[in-house]
Design a protein that fits this description.
By secondary structure, the chain is α+β, with helices and mostly antiparallel strands. It has three helices and three strands; from the N terminus they run E-H-H-E-E-H. It is elongated, with a radius of gyration of 15 Å.
């Protein structure tokens, strides 16, 4: 298990910290874990799973129709 910093998460998902916070508040992004008084992190696997769900959603929208 590995934690990612805010900098690592923003580099990975290409969203600003403010947008990540908005997605978290809307329950559309993995929740941060408080690691200490002024430190948070995200579980790498949860972020990777979220990214995979974005890809799956894209593929579902662009999949050719059956029987075409």
């Amino acid at each position: 298990m590995k934690f990612l910093s805010k900098k690592q998460v923003t580099a990975l998902v290409l969203y600003s910290p403010a947008h990540i916070a908005r997605l978290e508040a809307a329950k559309k992004f993995p929740a941060r874990v408080v690691l200490g008084p002024s430190r948070v992190g995200w579980l790498e696997q949860e972020v990777m799973d979220w990214m995979q769900s974005r890809i799956a959603e894209r593929d579902k929208r662009t999949a050719p129709l059956q029987g075409s």
